[in-house]
Amino acid sequence: MLRLFVDSNVLFSGLLFRGQPHELLRAAVEGRFTAVVSETVLAEADRAVAAKFGCPRGSVPLALRLLGAELVPDAEVADPERSAIQVRDPSDVAIVAAALAAGVDALVTGDKDILSAADLPVRVVTVRQALTLIGQAAQTSTNRHDL
């Protein structure tokens, strides 16, 4: 099954608003892919939901359990500014490193710094591209069953 690392901005938007991020999380609930998040992503999304919408802390972890998301540990990054992972914002290094360590098929983000970075060691896609990947994986699975 397709495993996609979901960044905090996508998780936040998908939980609180309609649109493509919501469609992506719905696809996870439907079992069309496995959503993977790190401890840092979980904490970031939980803080944002609490701060911006007054939801109680712990709301995002509960939602992720309902989504059937896989929680992975943060990857160790000794010095983000000297990392082989080159992104403009050093705090994004931990996100890319966690996705890489988790061995996911792709990192789904709306973060322009990550999306525009060249030569990252993990495939990076937008939500729209992730939905396309999920559709292609479903089609491939259907074709295999037809054989």
How would you explain this protein's 3D organization?
54% of the residues lie in helices and 12% in strands. It has a single domain (3-146), classed as 5'-nuclease (Rossmann fold, 3-Layer(aba) Sandwich), CATH 3.40.50.1010. It is of the alpha/beta class. The model has no long low-confidence stretch (mean pLDDT 89). α1 crosses α3 and α2 (20-29) runs parallel beside α7 (127-146). A 5-stranded parallel beta sheet has the order 3-2-1-4-5, sandwiched between helices. β4 (106-108), α6 (112-116) and β5 form a beta-alpha-beta unit. It has helices spanning 8-16, 20-29, 39-53, 59-67, 91-102, 112-116, 127-146; strands spanning 3-6, 34-38, 70-72, 106-108, 124-125.
Task: Summarize the model shown.
The protein has helices at 8-16, 20-29, 39-53, 59-67, 91-102, 112-116, 127-146, and strands spanning 3-6, 34-38, 70-72, 106-108, 124-125. It is of the alpha/beta class.
